[in-house]
UniProtKB/TrEMBL annotation:
Residue ranges with Polar residues bias: 193-202, 241-251
Protein's UniProt name: Uncharacterized protein
Domain of life: Eukaryota
Annotated stretches, region: Disordered: 186-251
Pfam families reported in the protein's UniProt record: Retrotran_gag_2
Protein source organism: Cuscuta europaea
Length: 251
């Protein structure tokens, strides 16, 4: 196998079917081995029985090469590429109500946590959206954008409010939200670097001013208390909006 077409390929496990499937389809198309799947296992008139049998075997071999040993035993006896492909789909792409519920719960509870970059967070979010779409539940762009905004912690509340208030016609889009998240992350990193220099300089200047430090600390504590109350208020408003959205989806 040439290196260029297999560098990005991954082995199928019990948890990565939605990522594995499109990559496998691309690989089969690059190798001109997709006909058994595209034709639902039926031989086209232009091919002889020998040609079709040979292609089917190659397609089966290509697919199996990228199936992890923990999954392989499920399809070890399959001789038809199309049957093998459909069996994998039925195993990992269930369209049951239970599967839809589990995926939606994971999506709603997906939160941006410390130590995770915005890029990683949005990638994980999109993976859940893609998994949900394979069950037949396709979320609209605005619904995805609202859920992504709801995944942000309270420390991002200012951005959430700003985006919500400035959205054209009151509708946020995924492009709008993801761009804003990337920009905000970059701004915070830059501000954090600058703040660290300021804190170091201020600490050196203060020296032993304990009383002044306590006085300033009390002032900051009062201001922080007021700020926390405002954030909690905005957070409650946002949670109310998200709950209304969840109920509208169930309806």
């Amino acid at each position: 196998m040439d290196k260029s077409s297999s560098d990005t390929m991954i082995a199928l496990t019990s948890t990565n079917y939605n990522m594995w499937k499109p990559r496998m389809e691309d690989l089969l198309n690059l190798r001109d081995l997709a006909d058994p799947l595209d034709n639902n296992g039926v031989k086209p008139d232009k091919k002889t029985d020998e040609e079709w049998t040979k292609m089917n075997r190659k397609t089966v071999a290509q697919i199996r090469q990228w199936i992890d040993h923990s999954v392989f035993h499920h399809v070890a006896q399959e001789q038809s590429a199309y049957t093998l492909w459909e069996k994998l789909g039925s195993m990992y792409q269930a369209k049951t109500a239970r599967n839809k519920t589990l995926l939606m719960r994971r999506l709603v509870n997906h939160k941006l946590r410390g130590g995770i970059s915005v890029s990683e967070h949005t990638s994980q979010f999109q993976d859940l959206v893609n998994q949900l779409s394979t069950t037949g539940w396709v979320l609209k762009d605005e619904e995805q954008a609202i859920l992504l905004l709801s995944s942000l912690p309270d420390s991002w509340e200012t951005l959430v409010v700003t985006l919500s208030n400035s959205a054209p016609n009151g509708k946020v889009t995924m492009q709008m939200v993801t761009d804003a998240l990337m920009n905000e992350e970059a701004r915070r990193k830059e501000a954090g670097t600058e703040q660290s220099y300021v804190l170091i300089s201020e600490t050196n200047r203060r020296g032993g001013g304990r009383n002044g430090g306590r006085s300033r600390g009390r002032g900051r504590g009062q201001g922080q208390s007021r700020g926390n109350s405002q954030v909690r208020g905005r957070s409650q408003e946002r949670d109310s909006s998200i709950n209304n959205f969840r109920h509208s989806i169930k309806a």
